[in-house]
Design a protein that fits this description.
The protein has 287 residues and is of the alpha/beta class. It contains ten helices and nine strands. The strands form two sheets. A six-stranded parallel sheet has the order 1-4-3-2-5-6, with helices on both faces. A three-stranded antiparallel sheet has the order 7-8-9. The longest helix is centred in the middle third of the chain and has 16 residues. The structure holds pantoate (PAF). Pantoate (PAF) binds next to strand 2 and helix 6.
C-alpha cells in the first residue's frame, strides 16, 4: 500500500477521543465508530465503507481486548500491526484511529462488567466461557467513550452482533447498530484475522465450512429434519478434514433460541477447529 492517503491521526486516551468527537458534534457532523481488534482485512474495511455511507466522520478503534480471551486462547499471539492497520484505514477514508492501552481501558481497580443473558448463551458463549461478557463490557465502554451516532459490526460474528444489539436496547444507549454482511474469499472462506494462522493444507480445507453451511441450509429448506441435516453437516466437516466441530446449530435469526423445526427466519452457525485454529461462520435463510 502506498502513502498517497492521509493517515488518520491516532488518539490513545478517552479524553483525547472525547475532545475530537465533541469538536465534530459542535460542527453538526454525524460520527460513526468501527470497533476492531486490529490485523485489519477487507472485512473490517467494509465496515468503515459501510459507516461512511451515513456518517460524516469515522473512528476506527484497535484494541486487543484481554477480557474477551479465555486462559488458553490466543491473546499473546493475536497479531498486532498498528502501522499497517493505520495505512489500510487511510485507504478507505477513516478519520481517526483510537488505540487505547490496556491500562486506559481497565485502570487499577476496574471492577465492572456487562453480562447479557439469553443471546450470549450456548454457541461461542458455550465453548468460550466469559467471552461475551468481555465483548459486551468493552463495546459498552467504546460506545460511552465515543458516543457515536452509528457503530458497525460484522455479521460474521453473528452471535456477537445480537449480543451488542441486545445490550444497546437494554441499556438505552443512543446509537444505531449496523450489521455488515460477511466478506468472503473467492472460495467462500469468510475473511478473519485468524485465517493467517492456517497452514497451506488447512487453508485448503477451510472453505468446506461455508460449503457445509450451504448444503445444510439447502437440506433443511428442502424438508430434511433439522437434527438429521445438522448431524450430516457435522460429519461432512470432519470428512473434509476439520479436527473438531464445536457446534453446528440452527437458531432463530433474531433471538438465537435453538430451533428444532424450520418455521421462521433462521441462522445456521458453526465453529470448527483446524489444529489450534478455531474458525466460525454462519448463514441466514428463511422459509
Ligand atoms: O469483533 C471484534 O473484533 C471484537 O470482538 C470487538 C467487537 C472489537 C470487541 O473487542
Amino acid at each position: 500500500m502506498t502513502g498517497t492517503f492521509n493517515l488518520p491521526p491516532v488518539v490513545r486516551t478517552v479524553a483525547d477521543l472525547r475532545k475530537q468527537v465533541a469538536a465534530w458534534k459542535r460542527e453538526g457532523l454525524k460520527v460513526g465508530l468501527v470497533p476492531t481488534m486490529g490485523a485489519l482485512h477487507n472485512g473490517h474495511l467494509e465496515l468503515v465503507r459501510s459507516v461512511l455511507k451515513t456518517a460524516d466522520r469515522v473512528i476506527a478503534s484497535v484494541f486487543v481486548n484481554p477480557i474477551q480471551f479465555g486462559p488458553n486462547e490466543d491473546l499473546d499471539a493475536y497479531p498486532r500491526m498498528e502501522a499497517q492497520d493505520r495505512e489500510k484505514l487511510a485507504s478507505v477514508g477513516a478519520h481517526l484511529l483510537y488505540v487505547p492501552t490496556v491500562s486506559e481501558m481497565y485502570p487499577n481497580g476496574f471492577a465492572s462488567k456487562v453480562d447479557v443473558s439469553g443471546v450470549s448463551e450456548g454457541l461461542c458463549g458455550g465453548s468460550r466461557p466469559g467471552h461475551f461478557s468481555g465483548v459486551a463490557t468493552v463495546v459498552t465502554k467504546f460506545l460511552l467513550q465515543a458516543a457515536p451516532d452509528v457503530a458497525a459490526f460484522g455479521e460474521k460474528d453473528y452471535q456477537q452482533l445480537q449480543v451488542i444489539k441486545r445490550l444497546v436496547q437494554d441499556l438505552d444507549i443512543p446509537v444505531e447498530i449496523k450489521g455488515v454482511p460477511i466478506v468472503r474469499e473467492e472460495d467462500g472462506l469468510a475473511l478473519s484475522s485468524r485465517n493467517g494462522y492456517l497452514s497451506t493444507e488447512q487453508r485448503g480445507i477451510a472453505p468446506a465450512l461455508y460449503k457445509v453451511l450451504q448444503s445444510t441450509s439447502t437440506a433443511i429448506a428442502q424438508g430434511t429434519p433439522v437434527s438429521d441435516a445438522l448431524a450430516a453437516g457435522e460429519q461432512d466437516l470432519l470428512n473434509a478434514g476439520f479436527d473438531a466441530v464445536d457446534y453446528l446449530e440452527l437458531r432463530c435469526a433474531s433471538s438465537l433460541v435453538p430451533m428444532e423445526a424450520f418455521d421462521r427466519p433462521s441462522c445456521i452457525l458453526v465453529a470448527a477447529r483446524l489444529g489450534t485454529t478455531r474458525l466460525i461462520d454462519n448463514l441466514t435463510f428463511a422459509p
